[in-house]
Design a protein that fits this description.
65 residues, mainly beta, two-stranded antiparallel ribbon
């Protein structure tokens, strides 16, 4: 998965890899201001989550099939 960020003083960043091997499109939620939760299906058929809260967390397994 890749991401790009925007800062009003520096404009758009370069593309940065967040790693992982995805077999589905990502889905994202924002439960609170400045926090983003991303969910994807991995190559193990499991659901994986990554959270942004001032920086990206490691990938965390949310269970599998």
């Amino acid at each position: 998965m890749w991401h790009k960020s925007y800062d009003t003083t520096t404009a758009w960043s370069k593309w940065n890899s967040l790693g992982g091997i995805l077999t589905s499109s990502p889905a994202a939620t924002s439960p609170s201001s400045g926090v983003i939760d991303v969910f994807v299906r991995g190559n193990d058929s499991g659901l994986w989550q990554k959270t942004y809260n001032g920086g990206w967390s490691a990938w965390t397994s949310a269970g599998g099939l």
